Amino acid sequence: MKVRYFDECQWLDVGDGMIYQFVDDEGEALAEAALIDGDANLWKFEVLVPDRYCHKGVKPAGIVCSQPAAKKVAEMILRNTIVTK
Fold first, then answer.
1. Is 84 exposed, middle or buried (0-12, 13-18, 19+ CB in 10 A)?
2. Which of 35, 52, 73, 76 has its CA 20 to 30 A from that of 63?
3. What is the spatial distance between Cα 75 and Cα 6, in angstroms, rounded to a whole number?
4. In 10 A of CB 76, how many CB atoms?
5. Do 4 and 84 form a contact (C-beta atoms < 8 A)?
6. Residue 17: CB partners within 8 Å, gap ≥ 6?
7. Digit-coded pLDDT (tens) for 12-38
8. Under 8 Å between Cβ of 40 and 29
9. Which candidate, 30, 60, 4, places its Cα nearest to that of 12?
């Protein structure tokens, strides 16, 4: 498994402020945060981890009430699975 360091990763805007991807130093997406309901300010996050970290084949994902929260939760999951601090 490739070692990825948190300080070498960054959030990139890939959808005009509505979709962000957390990418490593090689540009591989590790997580995504996307606006799903602009009126309610609901953001979906999905963490793109290997199958061994998935539950019944489903990658960690959820819906939260802000973009910073979506990013923080995704980062927390990554720091506890495939990204080293």
1. exposed
2. 52
3. 9
4. 11
5. yes
6. 35
7. 999 999 999 999 999 999 999 999 998
8. no
9. 30
pTM: 0.90
Which sign does the torsion angle of CA 55, 10, 69, 39 carry? Answer: negative
What is Dmax (Cα atoms) for the chain?
40
What digits encode the pLDDT tens for the residues 25-82?
999 999 999 999 989 999 999 999 998 889 999 999 999 999 999 999 999 999 999 8
Based on the number of CB atoms within 10 Å of its own CB, is 52 exposed (0-12), middle (13-18) or buried (19 or more)?
A: exposed
Identify the pLDDT of residue 1: 64
Tallying the residues shown for the chain, one arrives at 85
